[in-house]
Amino acid sequence: MSLSLVKRWCDTPLLRRVLQFKEYRRKIQSCNMTYTLLRHPWMKRLPVFSSSFRMLSTKTDKVERERGITVKAQTASLIYSYEGEQYLLNLIDTPGHVDFSYEVSRSISACQGVLLIVDANQGIQAQTVANFYLAFEAQMAIVPVINKIDLKNADPERVESQIEKVFDIPCEECIRISAKLGINIEEVLRAVVERIPPPAANIDEPFKALVFDSTFDHYRGVVANIAVFGGRVKKGDKIVSAYLGKTYEVNELGLLRPAEHPTQKLFAGQVGYIIAGMKDVKEAQIGDTLYLQEHPVEALPGFKPAKAMVFAGMYPMDQSDYPALRSAIERLTLNDSSVTVQRDSSMALGAGWRLGFLGLLHMEVFNQRLEQEYNASVIVTAPTVPYKAEHGSEEITVVNPSHFPDRAVVSQYLEPMVLGTILTPDSYTGKIMTLALNRRGIQQNMVYIDDQRVMMKYLFPLNEIVVDFYDLLKSMSSGYASFDYENAGYQAADLIKMNILLNGEPVEELITIVHRERAYNMGKAMCERLKDSIPRQMFEVAIQAAIGSKVIARETIKAFRKNVLAKCYGGDITRKMKLLKRQAEGKKRMRRIGNVEVPKDAFINVLKRKEK
Question: Residue range 433-438: average pLDDT?
Fold first, then answer.
């Protein structure tokens, strides 16, 4: 559902009166919706919401609609009448997937409270726990909302008891709703007014605003989403970026409902957008403070920039498409500053880029947008995680496995660790514990949240879960288990670099960093999957996994073979031997000069493994 402001309200006298903000402080609430409440079908049936819904649907990212997920946080302002007063509610809809938790954390910085949405059928999920603690650590007011109570198998009583046990929130504070049917939506809005405090903002102070998101418009430049913490700003004002020290002139500002609605001013306590002639999203640094040129202020406490946790190489299918792909990547990264870009080159694939993402889903969404929006066909290499190597007091970070230093020049290797949370029905506990053990997981905690569901916490190496752990978890639990994780720093590990050789030639894109005790099993499995992925050639192909000069696993793809003896119906055996020898020499020569073509999907499939 969208709690977006109705388009037809945009120019009413009511809105103009509210925007004058007499007694404005107690009439503004900002809240973060830590699960999606936006874009639900019930809005289509309400006349006042229909135009806004259509407008939002056309602007929603195509990938989001296809996958049924929220990728980019959406901001909306809503006027709500309560006990004879008009309130302006600032709402931010945030993603639920772990890869986009950064969207949640930075949105929370602009809010005073959160609506924690829990499915009445599925109950508390792993991402619910993660988002709760993000809000709890930020000392936000938390309003638990149980959605989808209209479903046949909905059990809101069980979910309320889970919330009380896991989060220590009384059952009486939970609100039961159906966003689809519009049941109790008014109660949610009342709770926002009653239970979430207004922003501690003062209109008499100098202007001070926090940049919590930004997008790029090819005609107007950067559109920065801001939360105003003090004073006011109007069109034509000169504002300064505390991060860069640059001065800009405000060309346009206004509210987001969720479509842009220009206004003359933005006041303390409001959340809106501002356009000030910024040409690059890097100028609108997330967490930056904006202030008036004539009234410098102390910068607001920002937050850490997004940290890439998964790296992959991207190369054009044809090198002639390089300029077009470069332009497509540049345009996409304008609206996604969390992607890191570094030029790279490969002997096999040519010129390309090494891109850093927040997670595997983030990488898949980026790749899907490249293909759909820019018709760019790319080769994506196997994803890797950032390792560290120490030599004395020096420390280097390695994001490309081909640059992994030799053990002789370092004192120790470090691998990134994550603290994973798994919620599952207790009938699948045994299978999931085996899966976690196979992925080098170390159990930290295990607790029953009710008589049927278990919450387990494991310390995992990030490399063990980044490719296919989530898919296997869903498969083993018939789709009922959920998984979320948070960074847990680095830990010393016995790591080695494993090369994959095709006919004795190393394939740079398939170099893998593995734990020593898993090297043989990993190498054998990769060779087997490559054998299934690479089509047969006119010559024999030897697939080998090697550590240094030592081959630890091998598979062979047999060559297509013509029967050169078909024309020999008899005669001397030496004639047949001569023909066979000539064929063998030709195959040997072909193998020496022939190139083995590795299919596009092999780079991802080769790292996926089936658990027994």
Answer: 93
Q: How many CB atoms lie within 10 A of CB 16?
A: 10
Would you put residue 518 in left (φ > 0), alpha (ψ -120 to 50) or beta? alpha
Fold of 388-493: Alpha-Beta Plaits (3.30.70)
Q: Is the pTM of this model over 0.85?
A: no
- CA neighbours within 13 Å on the CB side: how many for 391? 8
For residues 163 and 505, which has the higher predicted lDDT (pLDDT)?
A: 163
Query: Angle at CA 197, nearest 5°, toward 194 and 199?
Result: 140
The per-residue pLDDT for 605 is 65
Q: CA 89 to CA 24: how far, in whole Å?
A: 12
In this structure, of 27-31, 82-86, 188-192, the range with the lowest mean pLDDT score is 27-31
DSSP string, 425-481: EGGGHHHHHHHHHHTT-EEEEEEESSSSEEEEEEEEEHHHHTTTHHHHHHHHTTT--
Assigned CATH class of 496-605: alpha beta
Q: Is the previous residue joined to 258 through a cis bond, with omega within 30 degrees of 0?
A: yes
Judge whether 303 and 297 are in contact, CB under 8 Å: no
CA distances from 124 to 151, 449, 483 (A): 16, 9, 11
The CATH number given to 310-383 is 3.30.70.870
Determine the length of the chain: 612
**Spatial distance between the Cα atoms of 310 and 304, rounded to a whole number of angstroms:** 18
d(CA 537, CA 28): 69
What integer pLDDT is reported at residue 78 of this predicted model? Answer: 82
Q: What is the dihedral of CA 99, 461, 166, 2, to 10 degrees?
A: 0
d(CA 257, CA 270): 12
Hey, where are the domains in the chain? 7-195, 208-292, 310-383, 388-493, 496-605
* Predicted pLDDT of residue 2: 32
CA-CA distance, 363 to 348, in Å (whole number)? 22
**Does 388-493 match 496-605 in CATH topology?**
yes
User: In whole angstroms, how large is the CA radius of gyration of the chain?
Assistant: 29
Backbone phi, then psi, for 40, in 5-degree steps?
A: -90, 150
**CA-wise closest residue to 265 among 217, 228, 221:** 228
CATH no. for 208-292: 2.40.30.10
Mean pLDDT of the chain: 80
pLDDT on residue 292: 93
Cite the annotated binding site by residue number. 93-97, 147-150
Beta carbons of 144 and 173 less than 8 angstroms apart = yes
Closest CA to 35 of 179, 228, 250, 196: 179
Q: Superfamily assignment of 7-195 in CATH? A: P-loop containing nucleotide triphosphate hydrolases (3.40.50.300)
In the annotated binding site for GTP, the residues are 93-97, 147-150
